[in-house]
Design a protein that fits this description.
Largest sheet: 3 strands, antiparallel
Strand order of the largest sheet: 2-1-3
Radius of gyration: 17 Å
Number of helices: 3
Structural class: alpha+beta
Strand content: 15-25%
Low-confidence stretches: none
Length: about 100
């Protein structure tokens, strides 16, 4: 709350933003949470959420692997297959509207 009060509006941390690195640690959520608990000064890499709508035809498989934590409000795409509706979408979509693994 203190950070957002003094940060420029385009640098504020918002609900649904992604923290992808904490004090040099990335790729390991447990280790990143550990940094929050152990360290008093934090350097965060925050990636803002980007909203866009994708309409797909479900043909039995979307060609993605999803992870969902029961405590979470969303699902994480962990892998996109080379074929399937998601891959077809990606071939025609702008880079910022493609669905990639770990998005």
């Amino acid at each position: 709350a203190k950070y957002n009060k003094v940060a420029a509006q385009d640098r504020q941390i918002r609900v649904c933003d992604f923290v992808t690195e904490v004090n040099g640690v990335s790729g390991d959520a447990k280790a990143m949470v550990g940094k929050f608990v152990q360290e008093t000064i934090l350097s965060l890499w925050v990636v803002p959420a980007v909203d866009f709508v994708v309409k797909l035809s479900n043909q039995g498989s979307l060609g993605v692997t999803l992870f969902h934590d029961t405590e979470s409000i969303s699902m994480l795409v962990t892998e996109v297959a080379a074929d399937g509706p998601v891959a077809a979408h990606n071939r025609g979509a702008r880079a910022e509207e493609q669905i990639r693994g770990l998005d």
